[in-house]
Fold this sequence. Notes:
about 260 residues, alpha/beta, 7-stranded parallel beta sheet
Amino acid sequence: MALRLEGKNALITGGASGIGRATCIRFAQEGANVFAADRNLAGAEETAAAVRKLGRKAIAYQIDTSDETQVDAMVDRMVRDLGAVDILVAAAGVSHANYGADGQFMPCPLHQKPLADWRKVLSINLDGVFLCDRAVARAMIMAGKGGRIINISSGAAKLPTPGVGEYSVSKAGVWMLSKVLAVELGPHNITCNAIGPGFIDTPMTANIRQVEGFMKALLERVPAGKMGEPVDVANTALFLASDEGRYYSGSLLHPDGGLILQ
C-alpha cells in the first residue's frame, strides 16, 4: 500500500512540540521529508531525530515566524536543502502574551488588555502565519507544481474566549487569511485550508489548565467530555495534505470533540 505523502517535502512551523511535533511525525510515517521549524531549536532537533528514525529526511531550524527576514530565509533554506516545499503546516502560535516566558497566564478582558500583549499575540499568531504562507506560496508558484497550505487556526475563531480575546481575534484572522489565499492561489493549483482544533492536550494549554476552574468550565462545553490529543489534529492535517483532501480549499475543519456545536 502506497504511503499518502511519499516523496513530499513538508515545512511545519511549531515543530518542537504539541501539534507541530505530532504533525511532523505523522507526516513522516506517511512518507514525507520534514523541515521542523520552531523558536525552540532543541525541541525541533528532537523532532527531527524522531523523523529520521522513521527513515525520512529531517531538518531542524530555529525561527521567529513573526520576523519577515527570518521567514524568507527559512523557505530559501528548505528549497535549497530539500529541493521544494510541497506542503506547509503553519502551526506556530501562542495562547497568550506570556506564553513561553516566566509569567503565568492570567485572563484579562479586552478593555483592560495592554496594547503590547495584544500586539505580541497578533504578531505571532496572525502575522507569522501570513509571512509563512506568503513565502511558501511564492516558492510553490515559482516551482510550478502546486502545493498544500494548511494553517492552524482554532475553534476560538468562531467562539468568543473571554479573558483571551486577542487569541480569538488572531485565529479568526487566520481563518479569513486561509479563505482569501484559497481564492488567490487556486489558479496555481495550490489549496489553502485551516484547522480549528478544540481543547488539545499540548504544552500551550498546560498553563491555562492550571487556572482554577477555567478548564472545567471549558470542558463542560465539549460533548465528548475530554481534551483531544495532538495526533487528532495531525491526522486532520494529513487528510488535507493527501490526495484524499485534494478538493478541499478554503475550509476550516474542526477536530474538537463537538465543541463548535455549542
